[in-house]
Amino acid sequence: MPELPEVEALKDFLTEHLVGREIVRVLPVAISVLKTYDPGPTALEGRTVTAVARHGKFLDIDADGLHLVTHLARAGWLHWKDRLPDGPPKPGKGPLALRVALATGEGFDLTEAGTTKKLAVYVVQDPADVPGVARLGPDPLADTFDEEAFAALLDGERRQIKGALRDQKLIAGVGNAYSDEALHAAKMSPFKLAATLTPDDVHTLYEALRTTLTDAVERSRGVAAGRLKAEKKSGLRVHGRTGEPCPVCGDTIREVSFSDSSLQYCPTCQTGGKPLADRRMSRLLK
Asked: Which of 184, 195, 182 is nearest to 266 (CA)?
């Protein structure tokens, strides 16, 4: 799933390639991705892109005051085309969900792999009209997101810190991958209760979170849209690396599986050498 650093990089890429260009066609291929209907996507046609913004994991293309907002979800992606194919795309069972064509002949496709379709596209007068945007917590890279603000968000949180970091209503833009990475950098168990963090713990995690996200944004800066996924994977130290050696201590990276996701961690760095309980795997081994 694209998270804050990748969406930030897409924002920068599209700012360079879209701003000042006229949209001539918006072609929904999978109607299910459209979550708003008035105005419809064709209302964007004839408008010029004036800005591109990011709200958490949402990408926002402003075309003369009308906004095309998209959330790429787990399996969605944006593919830039220096030259779009001639003729309209054919509807079918392929991954193509929506195409945006520019007067220059350039454009982009939104695609979604797999059978679980959660890619979402909105056409709105104000990004705050998108429910997911309206509910977002503060952006962790904003200048106003200081350590005091972070501590206030965690105060009284009875959830495990992993779940708190992923909650978009609490902090915008952090998902499964970068919460794993920040907790590893902070040498903190993902199962630790947020409310039990000491001031020193909060300081350490705040610095780890900001550094992890800032470094990922810098690695992604200037990378073409088509290479961002590979760039993300290459920079991850524990997430998605079950069974590999920890780059810090050499211990084997372990996994805890859930019904629709998993987390990765280093026992030596994060849990005092003790593996975390993985109930799903325990059931499978019985």
From this structure: 184
Distances (CA, A) of 215 to 58, 157, 204, 236: 20, 27, 16, 11
Task: Count CB atoms within 10 A of the CB of residue 273.
Answer: 11
- pLDDT tens readout for residues 16-41: 999 999 999 999 999 999 999 999 99
- Give the single-character DSSP code of 53: E
d(CA 71, CA 121): 7
pLDDT in tens, 231-264: 888 889 999 999 999 999 999 999 999 877 899 9
Burial class (CB in 10 A: 0-12, 13-18, 19+), 92: exposed
For residues 167 and 15, give the distance between their C-alpha atoms in angstroms, rounded to a whole number. Answer: 28
Torsion angle of the four alpha carbons 13, 18, 24, 29, in this order, in degrees rounded to the nearest 10: 20
Phi-psi region of 211 (alpha: psi -120 to 50; beta: other; left: phi over 0): alpha
Regarding pTM above 0.90, the answer is yes
Task: Answer for the pair 257, 285: CB distance below 8 angstroms, yes or no.
Answer: no
CA neighbours within 13 Å on the CB side: how many for 87?
Answer: 3
**Beta-carbon-side half-sphere exposure of residue 124 (alpha carbons within 13 Å):** 19
Q: Which two tokens mark 142?
A: 């904003």
Cα distances (angstroms) measured from residue 58 to each of 2, 13, 117 = 10, 15, 16
DSSP codes, 190-228: TTSBGGG--HHHHHHHHHHHHHHHHHHHHHHTT--GGGH
Backbone angles phi, psi at 92, to 5 degrees: 180, -155
Amino acid letter, 22: E
Q: What are phi and psi of 151, to 5 degrees?
A: -60, -40
